[in-house]
Amino acid sequence: MAGRGRPRVTWVFGATLDGRVAAPDGTSRWISSRAARVDAHRLRAAHDAVLVGSGAARLDDPHLAVRHGVGGTRPLRVVLDARASIVTTSSRVADRAASTLVVIGPAARDPALPAHVGVARVELEAAGRFSLPALLRELSGRGVATLLVEGGPTVASAFIAAGLVDDVVGYLRAAVLGAGRPVVELPAVTTIADLRAFRLVAADIVGEDVRVRMVARERASRVGLVEGPP
C-alpha cells in the first residue's frame, strides 16, 4: 500500500519530446520504440493491476496483458466503462490471457460479459466520472497493492488532479509531432506557482527513448529523496 489505505499508483506514458501521445488523426502506434515497449511490459508485470480509461478502451481496444516474452505475474486488467457501453464479449480484454475487471457506474446496465470477466460498480461524482478514492478502495479490497495507470490523458489527468499519483514512468521519444493529443488534459494555469512538480529520481536511455522515473514530492520526502526546498 502507499501508506494511505489505497494502492500505490504509478502513472506511465509514452510521448514525443513535445509532449504528444497521438497525432492529430488519432494514430499513436508506435510513438515509443520497441525497446521502450518491452521495458513497459516489464513494468506491467511488476504491478498487481493495470488500468485504462474509457477513452483508451474505445480508441485502442487494448489487450493489457504482458507480452514481448516478458515473464512474471499477469496483472489484473482494469477498464473504466461508466456506462457499460465499451467492453463487449469481443473486446481484447475479455479473453483469458489475464484476469479482467470492468468498472461500471451504479446505474449502468448489465454488460452481459463472459463469466470469467469481473464487473464492479463504483460510485460516480457529479460530473459523471468515477470517484477515484472509491475506485481505489474497490481495488484495494480485491488485493491490489500496486496499480499502473496507462491510459490515456483524461484518466491520467484525473489521478494527477486528485493527488493520487505516487510514481511516474515516462518514455520520451527522440522525435516531435508539433500537434496532436497532449500527455495530460489539465485545467490551464496562470502562474508558475501552480506547477505540479515531481521529484526526478532516474533517467536512462532505452532504445530510442529516454525513460524518466519520478516520485511525488510528498513521497520523496518520506523516503529521504528531498534534501531541501524545490
Task: Report what the structure shows.
With 230 residues, this protein is α/β, with parallel strands linked by helices. It has one domain: Dihydrofolate Reductase, subunit A, CATH 3.40.430.10. 19% of the residues lie in helices and 27% in strands. It has 5 helices and 11 strands; from the N terminus they run ββαβαβββαβαββββα. The protein has a 9-stranded mixed β-sheet, with helices on both faces. A two-stranded antiparallel sheet has the order 2-9. β3, α2 (54-60) and β4 form a beta-alpha-beta unit. The radius of gyration is 17 Å and the shape is globular.
Percentage beta strand: 25-35%
CATH topology: Dihydrofolate Reductase, subunit A
Going by CATH, what is the homologous superfamily? Dihydrofolate Reductase, subunit A
Order of helices and strands: EEHEHEEEHEHEEEEH
Main sheet record: 9 strands, mixed
CATH C-level class: Alpha Beta
Strand tally, please?
11
Alpha carbon gyration radius: 17 Å
Helix content: 10-25%
Question: Gap between N and C termini, in Å?
Answer: 26 Å
Chain-averaged pLDDT: 88
Overall structural class, as computed from helix and strand content, comes to alpha/beta
Subunit arrangement of the protein: single chain
What is the spatial order of strands in the main beta sheet?
A: 6-5-4-3-7-1-8-11-10
Total of domains: 1
Shape: globular
Low-confidence stretches: 220-230
Number of helices: 5
